[in-house]
Task: inverse folding
């Protein structure tokens, strides 16, 4: 006879998983998982750059719910998409972001909406959402177009001279230029100024985050290795860049006080909130959120575009359809000038979702339980860290036939999977109340760049595709992307 449940058990937050999924054990310690070493646990097996691949492989080995030890702490890893969706939906009340990640982010001076929790998160989120509405992005369109023209000119030059480009680096510069201009009103133009260190600095801080995430001991608080000393130096340079951007915004607002009533970007809105009498925003909030926008908007969009262009360069039939659609939308133009034409790029949008299904920039999402809960039969206590391997639901053969294949058609037509469906199996932009607020902007960037690229150039990798791997720091991108461009001879 089953034991009657106690009062404590009936107060548990109970989360469901996919039909038929039951936790393989009732307690975290009893879950299957890799055998830990004393002190280190299994953290030594997670190599910087490929932690996600190891964690995914362990799902294949131990099943869709296992535990591994980072030092002496057990972490729970899951891949069930329904359970993942449930956890994401229960934020910020019952789950916080992964504690390790947010500590590491705060430690390198990037604390903002991404790492904030509770009421502080709510306030910051409202501001950020206001600045990234479709309406706001539409108003920014001339800026996005102008940066896309810059990228086109750079690639046109490379095609003319037959030079191999580092496409990943170009896309990172593109997205940092767009994000800085949009969220701070400043054109840093890293695409033209090769010696501007901003993009490399942001990149290095991502590497630092990735390197520190699963270290069993936070040694850098006491002992600095060369990489940690460099991180301190880059952190100071980034802080100075951000302070300069804040200074410039303050000057603009002093010269034109109407900007206080109608801020034109996130930074101005943050400064207005900061300066309100009795404001709960601090200078650090402003600084942290400015840095957060740089980080959240750079690598993410760039890696998503990089994967899409790489996959299209290896898929001639699908590439031909994207190109035909882009040719119709752009006509004689090199870069799309009509914002509303973006809505008609259905096949390109489907290709982008399909590429994010196969190569999501966030293949793992972390959460910390703020209450005791029951995850489909597994009892976890408050404080438990859970890692959600969000790509694997999208590779499930029961949901996606021939799941390893790139088929944009899956996202088209009346029976198409919808990325917004609550029963969806993929989480390219996360889910629940903390889903990515930059999603609309990101899709505009992706469509602008991919349409320009496919309309203007034939793109081929300058390396064997087998040598281009996945590299995961804070987001997952291709390990490298040397590309050759040839001007298309259609016009
Ligand atoms: C293709 C490009 C992008 C992808 C795939 C992406 C993906 C994501 C994901 C997976 C999350 C975590 C969501 C969650 O926890 O549920 C996130 C959060 C976030 N993203 Fe994006 N993102 C992209 C572009 C951008 C851009 C362009 C911006 C802004 C300029 C941005 C700003 C943010 C912010 C501020 C958060 C934190 C939200 C919060 O905690 O409330 N993202 N993004």
Result:
């Amino acid at each position: 006879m089953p034991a009657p449940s106690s009062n404590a058990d009936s107060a548990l937050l109970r989360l469901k998983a996919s039909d038929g999924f039951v936790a393989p054990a009732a307690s975290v310690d009893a879950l299957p998982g890799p055998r830990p070493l004393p002190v280190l646990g299994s953290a030594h097996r997670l190599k910087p750059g490929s932690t996600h691949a190891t964690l995914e492989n362990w799902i294949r080995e131990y099943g869709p719910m296992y535990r591994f030890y980072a030092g002496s702490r057990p972490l729970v890893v899951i891949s069930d998409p329904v359970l993942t969706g449930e956890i994401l939906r229960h934020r910020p009340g019952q789950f916080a972001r992964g504690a390790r990640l947010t500590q590491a982010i705060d430690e390198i001076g990037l604390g903002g909406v991404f790492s904030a929790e509770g009421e502080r998160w709510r306030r910051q989120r409202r501001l950020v959402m206001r600045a990234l509405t479709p309406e706001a992005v539409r108003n920014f369109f001339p800026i996005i177009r102008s940066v896309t023209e810059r990228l086109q000119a750079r690639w046109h030059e490379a095609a003319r001279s037959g030079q191999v480009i580092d496409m990943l680096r170009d896309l990172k510069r593109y997205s940092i230029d767009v994000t800085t201009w949009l969220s701070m009103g400043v054109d840093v133009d890293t695409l033209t100024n090769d010696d501007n260190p901003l993009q490399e600095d942001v990149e290095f801080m991502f590497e630092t985050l990735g390197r520190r995430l699963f270290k069993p001991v936070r040694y850098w608080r006491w002992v600095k290795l060369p990489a940690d000393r460099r991180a301190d130096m880059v952190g100071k340079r980034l802080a100075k860049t951000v302070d300069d951007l804040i200074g410039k915004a303050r000057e603009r607002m002093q010269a034109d006080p109407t900007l206080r009533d109608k801020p034109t970007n996130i930074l101005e809105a943050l400064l207005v909130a900061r300066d309100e009498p009795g404001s709960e925003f601090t200078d650090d909030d402003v600084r942290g959120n400015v840095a957060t926008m740089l980080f959240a908007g750079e690598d993410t969009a760039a890696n998503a575009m990089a994967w899409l262009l790489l996959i299209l360069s290896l898929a001639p039939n699908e590439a031909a359809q994207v190109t035909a659609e882009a040719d119709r939308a752009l006509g004689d133009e090199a870069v799309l000038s009509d914002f509303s034409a973006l809505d008609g790029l259905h096949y390109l949008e489907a290709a982008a979702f399909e590429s994010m299904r196969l190569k999501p920039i966030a293949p793992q999402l972390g959460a910390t339980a703020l209450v005791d809960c029951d995850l489909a039969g597994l009892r976890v206590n408050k404080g438990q860290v859970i890692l959600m391997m969000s790509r694997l639901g999208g590779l499930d053969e029961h949901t996606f036939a021939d799941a390893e294949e790139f088929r944009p058609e899956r996202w088209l037509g009346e029976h198409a999977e919808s990325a917004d469906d609550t029963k969806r199996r993929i989480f390219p932009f996360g889910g629940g109340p903390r889903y990515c607020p930059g999603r609309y902007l990101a899709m505009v960037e992706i469509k602008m760049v991919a349409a320009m690229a496919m309309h203007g150039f034939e793109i081929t990798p300058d390396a064997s595709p087998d040598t281009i791997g996945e590299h995961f720091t804070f987001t997952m991108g291709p390990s490298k992307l040397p590309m050759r461009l040839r001007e298309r001879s259609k016009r």
Notes: The pocket of protoporphyrin IX containing FE is lined by residues 88, 113-114, 125, 128, 179, 183, 292-293, 296-297, 300-301, 304, 361-362, 365, 428-431, 434-438, 441-442 (CB under 6 Å). The first strand starts at residue 13 and ends at 15. The mean pLDDT is 89. The chain is about 45% helix and 10% strand.
